[in-house]
Design brief:
mainly alpha, 83% helix, elongated
Length: 60
């Protein structure tokens, strides 16, 4: 449930967002974008692990 907003935003829009940040040459924005990407990836992997865990419980 953590990051359902990612599914609502088209991926090309997110890519454009990160592309403009990286090309802005602003170190602070770039570091924040990197932290943001790391958080989204870890939340997704945690989400996937939890979903697999609960699915195995309900199907057995």
């Amino acid at each position: 449930m953590g990051n359902q907003w990612v599914d609502l935003v088209p991926r090309n829009t997110l890519l454009e967002y990160y592309k403009t940040i990286i090309t802005s040459n602003n170190g602070f924005l770039i570091s924040m974008a990197i932290i943001d990407i790391i958080l989204v990836v870890t939340l997704r992997s945690i989400n996937i692990k939890n979903n697999k865990k609960y699915k195995s419980i309900t199907t057995s």
